[in-house]
Specification:
14 helices; 334 residues; disordered C terminus; alpha/beta; two-stranded antiparallel ribbon
């Protein structure tokens, strides 16, 4: 098996057709078919068949899909480590939920990266549903977000990825509360102490950050519990932007309690006593099992539970451009 063959098969599984795989890899359909044919001969398995509904994968094909992604990820990781060794630097790749990335990641990264002159930290934001696949495929070294039970693994070879996810290390390190807040001029602010009914809350305009997108996490759970219809939800590019709109009396925002504590104390926001709130959650560090875990990932798992790390996450002010290397570009829109 060659990397080219594995990439062709992996793209076919991921995209659901040979044509789409060829376009994604910038090669001809004949090239993809040739690579798949070589794998079929070598492994003695059809791997998949074409049906009216699309491609139907054999058990062996699903097993290969999982292993192909894992092998290709390991190859990429090896190339990265060799280059790092040559340059004398290390890189830790962190995947995080949007809620953690905005509220707690800056302080943690600043303090952790500052402990070593040869360490760079790369942060990317992903849905918690993808954490298992990202780790198994070696696309990231650690993932930070809700516990595994709250993040169902979704992957083309779901059964294989779920099995691999069972052997992951999970380290819980920080509990938090999700609360509902409104501006002091909002109609609900006058009755905040007495609480608002579910029907009344359901009819409000809800100002939400990017964590509201998807089905996994605290914010989607609260919205589902309250039965807030989509036409009453406004999604902003950040949770902070949503809270700023709430301060102007534009609607109800969901916020992490420690992030808005000063605004509530200063009168800029009012906390609502609402059904299903406060919702309590926890942030966790996920990494591959001990033998597969990169050393920097193990170091971060140990570090996040220290008092200094917890204080930095709650009070951190960010990192310098030289230290922090985001893996994604954030586009702001109006």
């Amino acid at each position: 098996m060659t990397p080219a063959q594995l990439r062709a098969f992996s793209a076919t599984v991921r995209l659901g057709s040979v044509k789409a795989a060829a376009a994604d890899l910038a090669v001809t359909e004949a090239a993809v078919s040739t690579h798949v044919a070589h794998l079929r001969r070598e492994l003695g398995d059809k791997l998949f068949t074409r049906t009216a509904q699309g491609l139907a994968f054999t058990p062996g094909g699903l097993r290969l899909a999982s292993r192909a992604a894992e092998l290709l990820g390991l190859q990429d990781r090896t190339v990265l480590e060799v280059r790092q060794a040559g340059s004398g630097r290390r890189l830790l790749r962190v995947a995080a939920s949007s809620l953690f990335a905005e509220h707690a990641a800056p302080g943690l990264i600043e303090l952790f990266a500052g402990r070593a002159d040869d360490l760079d930290v790369e942060l990317s934001v992903h849905s918690p549903q993808r954490f298992g696949a990202l780790l198994v495929n070696r696309a990231v070294d650690v993932a930070i977000g809700p516990p595994p039970a709250a993040a169902t693994v979704v992957d083309a070879a779901a059964a294989e990825t779920r099995h691999a996810a069972m052997s992951m290390n999970c380290t819980p390190f920080l509990n938090y509360q999700l609360i509902a807040v409104v501006g002091p001029d909002h109609p609900l602010a006058t009755g905040a102490a007495g609480g608002a009914g579910v029907r009344e809350l359901r009819e409000q305009t809800w100002l939400l950050g990017p964590s509201a997108v998807g089905r996994v996490g605290m914010v989607p759970s609260v919205l589902h519990c309250l039965g807030v219809p989509e036409h009453n939800q406004r999604i902003f590019q950040s949770h902070a932007a949503a809270v700023e709109e709430a301060k102007r009396g534009k609607g109800v925002a969901l916020a992490v309690a420690f992030a808005v504590a000063k605004d509530i104390a200063g009168g800029g926001l009012c906390r609502l006593d609402a059904p299903a709130l406060p919702a309590r959650g926890s942030w966790n560090v996920l990494a591959l099992a001990d033998r597969e875990e990169p050393p920097t990932a193990a170091e971060l798992r140990r570090f996040v539970t220290t008092p200094r790390a917890l204080q930095a996450m709650l009070r951190g002010t960010g990192v310098t451009a030289g230290r922090f290397r985001p893996a994604i570009h954030v586009t702001l829109w109006s």
